[in-house]
Amino acid sequence: MLTHCPNCGAPRTSEVCGFCNVILEPGGKPAAASKSASAVVAALRAGNKIEAIRLYREQTGLGLRESKDAVDKLERELGL
Asked: What burial letters (b/e) apply to 40-56, b meaning 16+ CB within 10 Å?
């Protein structure tokens, strides 16, 4: 796993870069542009977890289970 965000170079502490909001795939590469990543975070903050999972799946190409697990982890990291 990368220790820095490949998009902005900030130290990586989670699945979402705390500086540019890019969602990172398990391998460390950016899953989508920061604008799209913000949509996943916005859906979570609005309480729409299913929409967040759908957006994450579209952006990463991962399966339902992997996307749900990633969104669950993101939700915990954001304290939602």
From this structure: bbebbeeeeeebbbbbb
